[in-house]
Specification:
The complex is a heterodimer of chains A (297) and B (398). Helix content of chain A is 75%, strand content 0%. Chain A contains 13 helices and no strands. In chain A, helix 4 packs antiparallel against helix 10. With 398 residues, chain B is α+β, with helices and mostly antiparallel strands. Chain B folds into 2 domains: 183 residues, P-loop containing nucleotide triphosphate hydrolases (Rossmann fold, 3-Layer(aba) Sandwich), CATH 3.40.50.300; 125 residues, RNA polymerase II/Efflux pump adaptor protein, barrel-sandwich hybrid domain (OB fold (Dihydrolipoamide Acetyltransferase, E2P), Beta Barrel), CATH 2.40.50. Chain B is built from 10 helices and 20 strands. In chain B, the strands form 4 sheets. Chain B has a 6-stranded mixed β-sheet, with helices on both faces. Chain B has a 5-stranded antiparallel β-sheet with strand order 13-12-11-14-20. In chain B, a hairpin with a 3-residue loop joins strand 17 and strand 18. Chain B is elongated. The chains are: A mainly alpha (297), B alpha+beta (398). Chains A and B meet through helix 9 and helix 10 of A and strand 6 and helix 4 of B. The structure holds adenosine-5'-diphosphate and magnesium ion. Magnesium ion binds next to helix 3 of chain B.
Chain lengths: 297, 398
């Protein structure tokens, strides 16, 4: 077949990506190359539209990577990146440890019960994310629900709000459905006769889990982990509402640079660096999805 | 249509190079007639229901060591359920199952010394062919070198050595079947359970595989229990067949026994084609009996074995290939003559099946082997024909 133009309907996703991803990214990227200055936009250099090609050349010459240089040399930002990655990695691990048994249990229920449980997993999406995170403030604050419960049990109070632990709780709570759903999808369609075959070949049930169920669920584990990890790294609302000064995360740094320091070029550089950092896991996720699609055929 | 039982002597030839006359080994093998023989497996009054669906009911059965035993019956008659109870995947509601004298109740599947080849093969998709075969051996905790050696042995046995590194999804149906078989026999089980092992294969491959399975069984000396709904498959391979009907056993016997002396109408009709005549025993004059039937004025003359007393209502079952068909009237005094007209002809190459219409719109089926390539005057549509059969050709069913 001759190479042909894609049908117009196939262009819609590209158009979408161009308008909502490529264009904003280019704007942010251009901003990150501008000169840091305590100025409201416009930032130097400006494109001199009247200067024609020469004007555009002058504009390009004015762009530089100074902001990135500052980023690399500033300890605080390196630390923020590392801390974000570590928060996200831990949060992903906890979400996996909690989400796997949940998905496994759901997949083993009778079909009617399954649908009900699936609904319950999705239910939190019906309320605003912000409200759900605020609710955790109510739970974790010193005179909140958690301590009230502990008090009733005669246990000592714990003060979690504005600690890294509170951020971790918030992350795991918020992203758990993104872990459970892909895991459930792979576990639910697993062929039960494989477990019978394993038992028939002398494998007790707990061993069959590690030899058959788990390896076959790895595509779900990878998808769930990446779906949690990628947005967790850049999370802003949760560390802002639940975290204290100890919970340094890059999302917050970006916000600070944009709105507190008003250094837009530098803030843009922080954001672009974050995006570049997330490219490998995103590519991994994409490849894994394509493979899953092909295997499903 | 191939003659039942004809498969057995052919086995040694089908095997190619190896000279193993299984037919000869088999024909003297009959532990079920030996009162001192100890069965390997014993089902005693076993019953199983799913909700109000009865799958197996009050079933008793004994399978002897070294036997190739087939469970034969239509789909839904409880064959798989019976096999799954032996493997430990279903628990009998009533009765008990023993294996080598040990009651299996409460023994989980992974501790039963039987292995099953699943109808869907159930190969592990994330493991290669050799890892699949090694799976059962690993569970026993055998040393690595021993596992590797056994895997190689099994790969050779099923001629899958060139595919050792492949994944199941890179194999054809026949190859998957071989891997599933190798995986199931790798542990040298006391008994191998095969649930419709050839169901997914095409006809040619199925026939080849039948002989391979039989050779394998003799070679390994393992007892085989095979489930099938294909009567030809069961007859070719099995030492004994249990014909099942709605969760019960209708008859157990050697292939030629169940085919030639079916115990009832159900078995007669399930195994191959049969013409059934409703009749009444009018006279017994040893060794002959005379039956009155609507199809024949003179009545049918048959051997009197197993014939109930005069006056009883019976069915006379005559297989199509045991009837003769001719355009000329048989000589005067010939018994069991039916005159009719050809209604339909089905030519299958080796056989021709004639559907003959008797007076009263009664249809019977007659089969004739096409022994010569050209016939002077072939039988055609609407010809008047005479159908005859010998007194020992029919079976009287109570
Ligand atoms: N797990 C089950 N749940 C409910 N009914 C079942 C189950 N397994 C088998 N049955 C029923 O039991 C009967 C026997 O089934 P099965 O043993 O699979 O028959 P076969 O293998 O001879 O085709 C069928 O009527 C089937 O519907
Ligand atoms: Mg079945």
């Amino acid at each position: 077949m001759k190479a042909s133009w894609p049908r117009p309907s196939a262009l819609i996703p590209y158009l979408w990506l161009a308008i909502f991803f490529a264009l904003p990214f280019l704007l942010v990227f251009r901003l990150s190359l501008s000169d840091s200055a305590l100025s409201i936009p416009p930032y130097a250099p400006q494109i001199d539209w009247s200067g024609g090609l020469a004007g555009f050349r002058r504009f390009l010459a004015g762009l530089d990577f100074d902001t990135y240089g500052r980023l690399v040399s500033d300890h605080l930002y390196i630390k923020a990146y590392i801390s974000s990655l570590s928060f996200a990695a831990q949060g992903t691990l906890f979400a996996l440890l909690i989400g796997y048994p949940m998905a496994y249990g759901m997949a083993r229920c009778r079909p009617q019960t399954r649908n009900l449980l699936l609904m319950l997993v999705i239910l939190p999406f019906w309320t605003s994310f912000l409200i759900r995170v605020y609710a955790w403030v109510g739970i974790l604050k010193p005179e909140g629900l958690l301590n009230a419960g502990l008090g009733l049990l005669g246990l000592p109070n714990i003060d979690l709000l504005y600690t890294p632990a509170a951020v971790q709780i918030g992350l795991v709570y918020s992203y758990l459905p993104f872990m459970v759903l892909p895991l459930y999808a792979v576990l639910e369609k697993q062929d039960h006769t494989l477990l019978e075959a394993a038992a028939d070949l002398g494998s007790p049930p707990w061993k069959s889990f590690w030899q058959v169920t788990f390896p076959l669920s790895i595509p779900g584990v990878v998808a769930g982990c990446l779906l949690c990890f990628i947005p967790m790294v850049g999370e802003f609302v949760i560390p802002d509402l639940l975290g204290g000064p100890g919970s340094l995360m890059i999302g917050r740094s970006i916000w600070m640079e944009f709105f507190a320091n008003r250094d837009w070029p530098f803030a843009s550089a922080v954001a672009v660096a974050l995006l570049i950092m997330l490219v490998p896991p995103i590519v991994l996720y994409q490849r894994q999805q394509v493979r899953a699609l092909e295997a499903g055929r | 249509m191939s003659e039942p039982g004809a498969g057995k002597p052919a086995k040694a030839r089908a095997n190619g190079g190896r000279r193993l006359n299984i037919g000869a080994v088999r024909s003297s093998f009959a532990p079920w007639n030996d009162p001192s023989a100890v069965p390997l497996v014993r089902f005693e009054g076993v019953g199983k229901r799913f909700g109000d669906q009865v799958a197996v009911e009050d079933l008793s059965l004994e399978i002897y060591p070294g036997e190739f035993f087939a469970l034969l019956g239509p789909s839904g008659c409880g064959k798989t359920t019976l096999m799954r109870m032996l493997a430990g995947f279903e628990t009998p509601d009533t009765g008990r199952i023993t294996l080598a004298g040990e009651d299996l109740a409460g023994v989980p599947p992974h501790r039963r010394p039987v292995n099953m080849m699943f109808q869907s093969y159930a190969l592990f998709p994330h493991l290669s062919v050799e890892q699949n075969i090694a799976f059962g051996l690993k569970q026993e905790g055998l040393p690595k070198a021993e596992i590797a050696a056994r895997v190689v042995e099994m790969l050779d046995l099923v001629k899958m050595a060139p595919f050792a590194r492949r994944r199941p999804d890179q194999l054809s149906g026949g190859q998957k079947q071989r891997v599933a078989l190798a995986r199931a026999v790798a542990r040298k089980p006391k008994m191998l359970l095969l649930d419709e092992p050839l169901g997914a294969l095409d006809k040619k491959l199925r026939e080849e595989t039948q002989f391979e399975l039989m050779d394998l069984q003799v070679e390994l000396g393992v007892t085989f229990l095979i489930v099938t709904h294909d009567q030809e498959e069961a007859m070719v391979m099995a030492d004994r067949i249990a014909v099942m009907r709605e969760g019960r056993i209708a008859q157990i016997g050697r292939p030629e026994e169940v085919y030639e002396t079916p115990a009832n109408r159900y078995v007669a009709e399930f195994l191959g084609d049969v013409n059934l005549f409703d009749a009444r025993v009018s006279q017994i004059d040893h060794p002959m009996a005379r039956l009155e039937a609507a199809e024949s004025l003179e009545g049918f003359f048959v051997l009197d074995d197993d014939c109930p007393a005069a006056g009883s209502a019976v069915s006379l079952a005559v297989r199509p290939e045991k009837m003769r068909i001719s355009l000329e009237a048989p000589p005067q005094g010939t018994h069991n003559v039916l005159a009719g007209e050809i209604w339909d002809i089905g030519y299958t190459g080796d056989w021709t099946n004639y559907i003959v219409e008797l007076p009263g719109e009664r249809l019977i089926r007659v089969a004739r082997a096409n022994a010569s390539r050209f016939v002077e005057r072939p039988i055609g549509w609407d010809d008047k024909v005479y159908v005859t059969f010998d007194p020992d050709a029919g079976v009287v069913l109570g």
